[in-house]
Design brief:
The complex is a heterodimer. Chain A is of the alpha/beta class. Chain A has five helices and seven strands, in the order H-E-E-H-E-E-E-E-E-H-H-H. Chain A has a single domain, classed as Collagenase (Catalytic Domain) (3-Layer(aba) Sandwich). In chain A, the strands form two sheets. A four-stranded mixed sheet of chain A has the order 1-2-4-5. In chain A, strands 3-7-6 form a three-stranded mixed sheet, with helices on both faces. Chain B folds into three domains: 8-137, Response regulator (Rossmann fold); 144-316, P-loop containing nucleotide triphosphate hydrolases (Rossmann fold, 3-Layer(aba) Sandwich), CATH 3.40.50.300; 320-443, Helicase, Ruva Protein, domain 3 (Orthogonal Bundle), CATH 1.10.8.60. Helix content of chain B is 46%, strand content 13%. Chain B contains 18 helices and 16 strands. The chains are: A alpha/beta, B alpha/beta. The A-B interface holds A 32, 58-65, 69, 71, 111, 115-119, 123, 125, 127, 129-130, 142, 144-145, 147-148 and B 1-4, 15, 17-18, 20-22, 24-25, 27-30, 107-112, 114-115.
Chain lengths: 159, 456
Amino acid sequence: MGDCLRSTVKEMPQVPVPPSSYEAGRNQYYSTKILKEMLKEVPEDALKLLGVTEKDLCIPILTYVFGEAQLGGTASVVSLARLRQEHYGVAPDRPLLLERLRKESLHELGHTFGLIHCPSRDCVMYLSNTVVDVDGKGRTFCRACQMVVASQTGAGREG
Amino acid sequence: MTMEKSVNIMVVDDEEIVRDSLSSWLEEDGYKVEAVESGKKALERLPAKLWDLMLVDLKMPGMDGIQLMEEVRKTNPDMLVIIMTAYATVDTAVKAMKKGAYDYFVKPFNPDDISLTIRKIVDHHKLVQENLFLRKELKKQYKLRDMISKNEKMLEIFDLARTVAKSSSTVLIQGESGTGKELLARAIHDESPRSEAPFISVSCASLTESLLESELFGHEKGAFTGASAIKRGKLELAQDGTLFLDEIGDISLKLQMDLLRVLEQREFRRVGGSDLIAITSRIIAATNRDLKRAIEEGRFRADLYYRLNVISIHIPPLRERREDIPLLVEHFVEKFNIEMGKRIRGVGEGAMKILMDNDWPGNARELRNVIERAVVVAKGNVLTESDISLPAAAGGANHRAKSLEEIEKEHIRVVLNENQWNIVRTAQTLGIDRVTLYNKIKKFDLKKDGGALKEC
C-alpha cells in the first residue's frame, strides 16, 4: 500500500478500541469517537494515521460503515468486521480479506488527502457501501486522484 | 476525481450528532452540505442558495419536519424533501408522503439505500430542471414578440402573422435567403392553437425527386427496392401541427402536381399504399425564388402557386431596413454573450459603421455569423473594427455603388486586419511598398483600435 502513496508505512503498537466509542444499544463502535481518540496519539513524524480494527463500526445516522476518515485531515479507521466473508455466511478467504482491507484503507486515507468519492469504477475512491462494490472497484487511485495525493506526498512525481 | 456538478443539500435536525455525522458522510460523496438545527433556521437559509435537496428530521421542537416542508413549498414548490425519523410509524410515513415528501427514511439508514436514493433524485431533479429550461428556451426563441424590428413593413408582417396564426390557411413566405423565413414560420406555429403539435420542416431543394416524394408522403413496405418497412412521411408526422415546405420553388413539376392534388383533396396515400390519409396539418411554404417569373418560364405551376399563396408574406432584405441592423446586432451580441459566457457590452462606433454600410446579401443570418465570429475573437468588452470580418463580396453581391477609392480603402482595411496590422506583411500582400502603404493609411485615415503598428 505504501507504494501507492510513495510513503513509508510504520506499524504502531496495538491499542484497545476506546471504550467510550461503544454503542451498547447497537453492539457497534462509533467510528468518529475512535478518530478523536486516535488524534491524541499521532506521532510527530506521521503525515497520516490509519487505524484497523476487528470491531463493527457505525455512525449515529448509518447502520454501519466500513471505515471513516477526517476529510482533508489526519486520522482514518477501517473495520475488518464486514470485509470478512464469514460475515455473510461464506467460508473465510484470507487473500480476499487482505485485498478488501487494502482497498478500504487506501480509500479512507484518500479522504484524509481531501479526496471525495470518484465517479470512476477503476478508482479506489469509488463509493463502496457493500463488499460487492469493494470487490468491483479498482485497487489504486485513478490518475486524477493520484495527482491530489502526489501533491501532498510526492508520490508519482518521479514517474 | 470529483463529481461534475455541485449539489447543495440542506440537513435539518435538532440533534448535533446527526447533523455532524450526516454532513461529513455526504461531504465525502462530493455534496455541498449545510446543516441547521431547526425549521426556523432552515427557512432563514432557504433563499441563500439553490438547494437541490433537503433532509429533514420529522420530530423537532417548534416546527416539525412536515410543517417545515409545507412552509418551504410555499416559496419553492418543487423542492425535494426527504423526511428522516427515528420512530417509524405507518401513519407518519403516509402523512409525510401525502404532504409531498419524496421519501421517508428511518434512522439509522442503510448507507447503500441513502446514497443510491440521493444520487437518483439529484440526477432526476437535474434532468427535470434542464428539460424545463430547454423547453422555455425553445419556446422563447420562436415567439413573435421576440422577433425584433423597427421597420414598418416588418411590423406589419408581424401583425399579419399574428392574425394568420389563429387560422389554418396556407401561407407562402417569400424573401431572400437568411431573412428568417423559417423563424417566422415557427413563430406562426408557436402562436397558433397548433403549438403543442409538431412543427415539421422539409428542405425541398436538398432531396432528389423520388426521395422527396417518400420523405413527404412516406411509403409502404416493399414500395420500392430498399423499402424494408413502413415509413411515415412528413405530411403524416405533421398531423395537427404545421408542415413547413422550405425552398418550394425548387421542386420538380411532377411533385408540384402531386402536391397540388394533395392540397386540393386534403388527403394523400403513402408511396405504394392504397389507404387514403387525411391531412390535418397547416402548410407553410417558403422560397427565395421569384415564383411569378418561374411561372412565366414554365418552371412552376400557376395553379399550385395560387393554392399556396392564400396568405402571402414577403420579408424585405436587410439592406432595405437598415434601421434594424443595430437592433439585431444588440440581440445577437446578447445571445452569443450567453452562449459563450462572454461579457461584450456593445459595439464601437467604427465597427457599427461597417455593419451599417454593408449590404448583407446573406441578410440577418449573415449578420448573425459575423457577430458570432466577432464575439469569439473580441479581446475587450466592446466589439471593434478589427473584430468585424465581412465575408468577401462574392460575384459583386455587395452591389451598392461604390467609388474606386472607397473600394481601395475597404480593401486595405481588410488586408490590414487580416494581418493584424502588420505593415510588412500587409504591404507584401497588397503588392506595394511600406511607404505607399503608410501614405494610404494616412490618406484614408485608417486606424487600428488600440495598440501601435507592427513593423515586423
